[in-house]
Specification:
By secondary structure, the protein is an alpha+beta fold. The chain is built from eight helices and 19 strands. The strands form six sheets. Strands 1-2-6-3-7-18 form a six-stranded mixed sheet, with helices on one face. Strands 12-14-10-15 form a four-stranded antiparallel sheet, with helices on one face. The chain has a three-stranded antiparallel sheet with strand order 4-5-19.
Length: 379
């Protein structure tokens, strides 16, 4: 059922922990054997691959890097070996997102087009800082005049059942660093010091109060509380709370910042990603129809989840859609999908390419007919 199984095995076998590509993109270039451009920046491997056809560009956006496997004892099978058990495929990156890379490569290679150009832009720094990844590539693509009309992102978007969800936008991500200052001193002489933890309860109460005013999908989530000292007989100088907000509108961050600044603590905010919402157009409809034809199910749009590299193309491409495997085991031990899901993903990508090529052919035909009518000489 899985054609070109060797390609999938090669990709999973490579320990491409971000930002190390570990040779994955070279394997993909050799498999596709199309024109490619090396757009690497510093320690990040970036590659653009294009078919020789002409027409508006349908670009697949993906990444070859994966997160570290974590404790190997928690894996039932080696994370960097493709293992098939009971119709399931295991391996780090299987759903995020080497499975989708394989599906697109297979569909791109076996689906001829005559009215559109197919492309694949991949980076090895999506799971990390992203500094030298797609963000850094955009100026080079502008220079090459290779801007896509449609973008398909292969992130794992499905939730409970494969094909139940696609993303046509993403929330932004803001990190806050909130520091409570005190006065360091000997723990045996607390009257000569000021323990910052005394204000910790009011800080947490403030966060909880703010959360009650926010939408459920935009809540403050604390991920770290650190003291400046970890010595057992020293009262620390300060305590820093680190928390994140996934937000749908920039105004939310401004409002939260203003409320946090009312407390006598030091506040720093870093916006790592701004939210984006893509146009809902013909390409999105074609994806929905491709999913319906393959799975007999209708997906729903969603903007939840983490950030994706699609945000870097939001100002350049009118229509960006994300669709991939189920995200349930992404970044987990024993990351996996079923053989059927992977096969169906390849079929959906194949159908999407065919439908997009056909639609563009019909548009060209209508344009030609209209142009000829315009130049008709009346008798």
């Amino acid at each position: 059922m899985i054609h070109e199984y060797a390609l999938l095995k090669q990709l999973i076998t490579k320990p491409s922990i971000t930002p190390d590509d570990s040779g994955c993109q070279s394997i993909i270039r050799q498999f596709l054997d199309f024109q490619s451009f090396d757009l690497s920046v510093n320690n990040t491997q970036n590659t653009l691959i294009l078919t020789p056809t002409h027409g508006p560009l349908l670009l697949f956006l993906g990444h070859t890097d994966v997160v570290a496997p974590g404790s190997l004892e928690q894996w039932d099978y080696p994370p960097f070996e493709l293992t098939k058990k009971k119709n399931k495929l295991y391996g780090r990156g299987m759903v995020d997102m080497k499975g989708a890379l394989w599906a697109w490569c297979s569909a791109m290679k076996r689906t001829p087009t005559s009215n559109i150009q197919l492309g694949m832009l991949i980076t090895s720094d999506e799971e990390g800082s992203g500094t030298n990844g797609i963000k850094a590539v955009i100026p080079r693509m502008k220079e090459l005049n290779m801007l896509p009309k449609w973008v398909l992102v292969g992130e794992p978007t499905s939730k409970e059942n494969f094909g139940d969800c696609f993303k046509n936008g993403r929330r932004g991500s803001a990190h806050f660093y909130w520091t409570i200052d005190g006065k360091q001193g000997h723990i045996a002489y607390p009257t000569h010091a000021k323990n910052p933890s005394n204000a910790l309860q009011s800080a947490l109460a403030c966060i909880e109060k703010i959360n009650h005013t926010l939408p459920a999908n935009n809540r403050i989530e604390i991920y770290s509380i650190n003291t400046s000292s970890h010595i057992e007989n020293v009262i620390p100088q300060s305590i820093t709370l680190k928390f994140n907000i996934r937000f749908t509108h920039n105004e939310i961050i401004q409002e939260v910042s203003e409320q946090l600044k009312e407390m006598p603590f030091t506040l720093e905010c870093q916006i790592r990603a701004h939210p984006y919402q893509s146009k809902y157009g013909t390409f999105t409809d074609l994806l929905i129809h491709s999913i319906q034809d393959t799975l007999n199910t209708t997906p729903t749009p969603c903007v939840l989840g983490g950030t994706s590299d699609g945000r870097w193309l939001a100002d350049l491409c009118p229509e960006i859609v994300e669709f991939g495997l189920k995200n349930k085991t992404a970044h987990q031990c024993n990351e996996h999908c079923t053989v059927q899901e992977l096969h169906d993903l390849e079929l959906i990508y194949h159908q999407l390419i065919k439908k997009t090529d056909q639609i563009n052919s019909e548009k060209n035909l209508k344009h030609t007919i209209t142009k000829n009518k315009t130049h008709e000489v009346p008798i």
